[in-house]
Amino acid sequence: MISFDLDMTLLDHNTGKITPSALEAIDILRKKHKIVLATGRDMDNYYSRQYRDIIKPDAVIHMNGTKITVGDNLIFEHLFNRKLLEELLCFCDREGYGIGMTLGDDDYYIHEKNMNGAFHEDTVLMQVLDDHPTSGRRKEGKIIKILDFGFVIPDNLRFDSDIFVSKSQCKNLTSGFKVMVEITDYGDTRR
To answer: What is the pTM of this model?
Structure first.
């Protein structure tokens, strides 16, 4: 059995292609050995399966060992603990880190500079920046509008922080209403 990584080993990120010499070596090795891909990617995902289909490995160790397939058979899968994932997302949100996750094939990477003040669990309108990436990159997007909050303008103009209120708290309010709010989170310099 011979194992290869995909990124920076078989895949040339400048061209987005697996090098011909790598494919030739794999074909030679395949005659006497099983070929295994061991990668941080989910090779069944939209962005990666094209490479899996070119290499035709006998087995794949996906996502750093959290999923293993032999041929078309899933023989092992470890799912992320939901509570731990929620804690991780909250930490990243609180500390200002961007985090990308993929569920199935629908995945857009949003760079920190393109967040437009959005936080974890905000409902947003996203503009697609790159829907057909090359070199195995993820699709990219940019938040253009946050859809699930109201905006409060304080009477005291010396208060220079934005005040956002979730739509669920706004009930039937519309522009022009005078409201009293309790600030529960002062945010950070981004908001």
So the answer is: 0.58
